[in-house]
Design brief:
Chain lengths: ~400, ~350, ~350
């Protein structure tokens, strides 16, 4: 083939790859990069309030701030025509100190409705409180910030710039992270406990029996998450099927608390995630030659020991990928815990949803997302190590 | 090279399709809260206005959250035009500059509406209350106040509350003896917030938290809770549709105004403004209470509501007695911090 | 003769409505190499599975070393099994595979290591201890499987078509190796195969199975030269089966009248009844074309086909009485299609089947 033909062939190959590259870039790389940058960048105050930023550098953080920064702020407001940019500033400041919303709304209309010098303390006496000015000064320090990442782990910087822990009444993200991993771990263990024997059963039968078993485990995947979760509410509630049955059989005297607690969350999530455990184990099990168990038995191993020494080690790769799939999916759950869990069963995604949907605090949402992503990647690394130490060739 | 050419052709086709989707004009899209309420709105507002406009009116529903609107506007060319928002979302979004300014001349002037329905960025659509609800058939002598709501010995059983600090803290203070008129004054101080959370601690083991408006009714129906906070419109709705005898405790309730806003940069902003004007006409708005028990912000419309429906509405003078309006300013200032604290408290 | 070591008494086995073994009796002596030979579905593998303990007989007794074992689980039977596809444990090294039965028996590490080494040396794989099975060739894997089945010195070694997956040359080498091990260690081996030449070369005795029953059991030469039934005659090697009716039965010779007027002379043996129909098996290599020797059977005919095989020439000869297949040594290579020749053979070459 001529050089030109070769070149064209490369172009053709590149074109064929384009959709994939665009897809990855658009839906994978870009969201992660923007999440990262949202979490650590803090440009709004510096950009929108340049004179105030300048003035804040001269302020000693002790004397009244209005004489130094007040007029600069008024000038900045008058110079800004972009409502959205100012909106970002207000949101950013209010998230650091409550009260900025109304304070700035008043100040904005006062500044825009007048010209010349304006005494902010007459607009709103709250401006005499240096706390508000501290917030502005802190926000105008740099275009980049670690405050979101710190806050995601329940830390903050005091006015002196030292890192200190937030009181548990103000923030308990670390607790929620811990809880997220505990619940996900529990769900993973439950999925192994139920999924492994189930996969063994499905792999040991053939024909319609296998179809039925696999269908039963796949069925939840074909119904919406919300419907499945609602079904569990109906089953688990005090007057629900399970409690009615238990009481009708006189196994319990009163209703067992199955709903709005950890138990309900683990039950419902295990149900939802079970297919992700069963399928990888099943596919590994059916790949194991059928004569290995008889061979082990003929060599003197009881069924249990044959399972322990042969089938289990050979199927561990399936268990590992199943566990990874289940765990990774589980840490992202928030609808199920929100509906069937109690207040102490909410997971970190609920917090992320709160910041992104309710307060539009993308920085915090991004920071929490990064921590979650980092934890997930660390886990994946562990999984990689574990499965690579066991080079199984079947 | 045939392959190369067909690939180029395919890419060009794909680009064309994408382009034509973007270029195609989108019909006016209005967004509301879904459920019975949106069904009623569709009948009395969306369909008739579509006839006036001579074009289809698309309607979608959402669950609130200013972040949702924020991201739509920030991305440019939002795919929603008119959206119904709560008090807080109105104030927040207005401050953030994500709404178009309202042309009050088209609405016949600000003085046609009750005060809390008027703003630069939005027009009040309904007035609704959050109040104690209970099943009148199960509790003959029901609760009268928030103190009763907190009293689990007098009224055994669990309590339903909406998950979040808004309303919850106000109700807790009233249960602790703060007069309705002073609630926000007390809540404005750090001591007041502590006091509210302390009062909530008392009830915490007995609370079932709800999030969607249909949940409290179901919780009361199934007996999971003895009483719950609920939206008044939902209570009247279930009484009508399922012949229930759910009662509303008006004193101590908090009423709020939901408003129509237009997203900044919306393609059909002008049509959306006309739509809002259409829904605000007294003759159109007055049709709503017959379908769903919400109060009306247009004064003429409120007066035109038949007498037998007045008893269900938050705007009826007798029901306003001891009720307080939601303080939007307080919540836009303090929502983030108090929600953080509430979530932390909840998870402890 | 002492009591047989392995004894099947009146054993039947059914899977649901399907009966695969019917009223089977089989006795195997200690140190004997017995092949179970038959087409697939003839029940030979089921016998092996019952012996290994993976199947239980529906009725009848299985006795090994004087003990009933019908309900004994596989791991208590102390039998080494070699499977067709080796069944090596892929996650263990060669040494770990071979040590597995020793570990299961709780044998001390040092002792175990020595025995593993010995077993692997025995199959010439002492240097491959640390390899994984996937790093070995098929023949090597099978030798590991063999070492694993022998290392715990089992009372009986069961082999289920162990060489089926190997190519011809390797298979023949392994046949010799296994025979050599059998002799050297005095093993009792039950060997399942569908390959008659494998059975003939390796076994002390062969049991030919068909439809869940033993058609014939005997030494390889008996099975080959004195087949008891048409099935055995046709299944073991190639043969000419000539149909006729028994004529006169004299002291040494019996004549058999063929349909088209021809006549076969066979050696008289007990059980031949005048007037009874008979099938006579004549092995192709026992038929000759030369007339130098005295031949009592002589069938002139026309050469239909002639194929050169190197060590022999295979000729199809059409005669009025039968179409004979003849394996002749290649000095007769002058023959050509259409040539008129006679097939001649001694009475000793004929065997009246059944």
């Amino acid at each position: 083939m001529s050089a030109g033909g070769k070149y064209r062939r490369h172009v053709a190959a590149a074109l064929m790859l384009m959709p994939l590259v665009i897809f990855l870039g658009l839906f994978f790389v870009w969201p992660i990069v923007s999440m990262l940058s949202e979490a650590v960048s803090d440009p709004v105050v510096v950009k929108t309030l340049p004179s105030t930023t300048e003035a804040a550098r001269r302020w000693d953080h002790a004397s009244p701030a209005v004489p130094i920064m007040g007029q600069a702020l008024v000038d900045d407001i008058r110079a800004t025509t972009d409502d959205q940019a100012m909106g970002d500033v207000v949101r950013r400041l209010n998230s650091a100190k409550s009260g900025f919303r109304t304070l700035m709304m008043k100040t904005l209309s006062a500044a825009r409705g007048s010209t010349g010098p304006l005494d902010l303390t007459t607009v709103d006496p709250r401006w005499q409180d240096n706390g508000y000015w501290e917030a502005i000064a802190a926000a105008s320090g740099s275009r980049y910030t670690d405050r979101n990442l710190l806050a995601a782990l329940d830390y903050t910087r005091n006015p002196q710039g030292q890192i200190e822990a937030l009181p548990p009444s103000a923030s308990n993200n670390a607790d929620i992270f811990k809880r997220t991993f505990v619940i996900s771990g529990l769900v993973t263990l439950m999925c192994i406990a139920i999924g492994y024997p189930f996969a063994m059963l499905a792999a040991s039968v053939t024909g319609w029996k296998r179809q039925l078993l696999l269908g039963a485990v796949l069925l939840p995947l074909w119904t919406s998450l919300l419907v499945r979760t609602a079904a569990w509410i109906i089953l688990l509630q005090d007057q629900g099927l399970i409690n009615s049955l238990l009481q009708a059989l006189h196994l319990t005297s009163g209703p067992l608390p199955l709903l709005f607690n950890r138990m309900g969350v683990v039950i419902a999530m295990t149900h939802v995630l079970l297919p992700f455990m069963v399928l990888p184990i099943f596919s590994v099990l059916i790949g194991i030659p059928g004569n290995l168990m008889p061979a082990a038995q003929s060599l003197g191993a009881s069924k249990l020991r044959a399972f322990w020494h042969v089938l289990l080690p050979l199927s561990l790769r399936g268990v590992a990928s199943g566990a990874l799939l289940v765990f990774m999916s589980a840490i992202g759950y928030y609808i199920t815990p929100a509906l069937v869990g109690g207040p102490r069963d909410q997971m970190i995604s609920a917090v992320i949803a709160f910041y992104s949907l309710n307060t539009a605090n993308w920085g915090m949402a991004g920071a929490l997302g990064i921590i979650l992503l980092a934890a997930t990647l660390a886990l994946y690394a562990v999984y990689h190590r574990l499965t690579n130490d066991r080079p199984v060739k079947v | 090279m045939k392959l190369t050419r067909s690939l180029l052709l395919a890419s060009a086709l794909a680009a064309l399709t994408l382009g034509s989707v973007a270029a195609q004009a989108r019909d006016l899209t209005v967004v509301s809260w879904g459920g019975n309420y949106q069904d009623a709105q569709r009948e009395i507002y969306f369909k008739p206005f579509s006839e006036v406009l001579g074009k289809p009116v698309l309607d979608e529903s959402w669950d609130g959250g200013v972040g949702v609107l924020q991201s739509k506007v920030k991305a440019g060319a939002p795919n929603w035009d008119a959206v119904q928002v709560e008090t807080e979302e109105l104030a927040l979004g207005c401050a953030d500059g994500i709404y178009e300014k309202i042309d009050w001349a088209k609405l016949g002037g600000k003085d046609k509406f009750i005060d809390s329905a008027v703003s630069d960025c939005g027009v009040g659509a309904i007035v609704w209350s959050t109040a104690i609800a209970y099943d009148g058939d199960k509790l003959k002598d029901g609760p009268k106040s928030w103190a009763d709501f907190w009293d689990v010995t007098k009224f055994p059983g669990k309590r339903g509350l909406r998950k979040g600090p808004k309303y919850t803290l106000e109700f807790a203070l009233q249960a602790d003896g703060v007069a309705p008129a002073d609630v926000y004054k007390v809540l404005g101080t750090p001591e007041g917030v502590d006091r509210a959370f302390k009062k909530l601690d008392e009830l915490k083991p007995n609370i079932v938290w709800w999030e969607a408006g249909a949940q409290p009714l179901q919780l009361i129906s199934s007996g999971e809770v003895a009483m719950s906070t609920a939206y008044n419109g939902r209570i009247s709705g279930i009484n009508r549709s399922e012949k229930k005898n759910f009662k509303v405790v008006w004193p101590g309730s908090i009423y709020a105004v939901d408003s129509w806003v237009i997203l900044k940069g919306a393609e059909n902003a002008a049509a959306a403004m006309d739509f809002i004007a259409f829904t605000s006409k007294p003759e159109n708005q007055a049709k709503l209470p017959a379908k769903i028990a919400y109060g009306l912000p247009n004064k003429e419309a409120a007066a035109a509501v038949p007498a037998e429906l007045q008893g269900e509405l938050p705007t009826t003078p007798a029901n306003m007695e001891g009720a307080i309006p939601l303080n939007g300013d307080f919540w836009i200032d303090n929502s983030e911090e108090l929600t953080k604290r509430f979530n932390a408290w909840l998870g402890q | 003769m002492s009591d047989p070591y392995i004894l099947f008494q009146n054993v039947s086995k059914s899977f649901g409505p399907l009966t695969v073994i019917k009223d089977l009796d089989l006795a195997i002596d200690k140190g004997e190499f017995v092949s179970l030979l038959g087409p697939s579905g003839s029940g030979k593998t089921t016998i092996l599975m019952m012996l290994a303990g993976f199947e239980n007989p529906t009725s009848g007794a299985v006795i090994v070393g004087g003990q009933h074992v019908e309900r004994l689980p596989p791991h208590k039977r102390n039998m080494g099994v070699v499977f067709q596809s080796y069944a090596l444990f892929p996650h263990m090294t060669v040494a770990e595979n071979v040590a597995f039965p020793l570990n299961m028996r709780g044998i001390a590490k040092a002792d175990s290591a020595a025995r593993v080494q010995r077993a692997l040396d025995m199959v010439q794989l002492g240097a491959y201890k640390e390899r994984k099975p996937s790093q070995l060739s098929g023949g090597q894997q099978q030798r590991v499987a063999l070492a694993r089945a022998l290392v715990f010195e089992p009372a009986v070694v069961l082999m289920d078509e162990p060489l089926g997956a190997l190519d011809k040359q390797l298979r023949e080498q392994m046949q010799l190796d296994i025979r050599e091990l059998h002799k050297r260690l005095g093993l009792t081996i039950v060997f399942v195969t569908h390959d008659q030449s494998e059975a003939l070369t390796m076994s002390d005795r062969i049991a030919v199975f068909n439809h869940g029953k033993i058609e014939q059991i005997g030494r390889p030469s008996e099975i080959y030269e004195r087949p008891g039934t048409r099935f055995v005659a046709e299944f073991i090697g190639e043969t000419n089966l000539v149909e006729g009716v028994i004529g006169t039965v004299a002291k040494d010779r019996t004549t058999i009248a063929l349909k088209h007027g021809g006549k076969l002379v066979v050696e008289t043996r007990p059980g031949l009844v005048e007037g009874a129909p008979a099938s006579v098996s004549i092995r192709p290599e026992r038929i000759h074309f030369d007339h130098t020797a005295e031949r009592e059977n002589d069938f002139p005919g026309t050469v239909l086909d002639r194929v050169y095989h190197g060590d022999h020439v295979r000729v199809v000869l059409d005669t009025p009485d039968h179409r004979f297949i003849i394996k002749s040594d290649h000095r007769m290579g002058v023959l050509d299609e259409g040539d008129k020749v006679s097939a001649s053979f001694t009475p000793n070459a004929c065997w009246v089947v059944g």
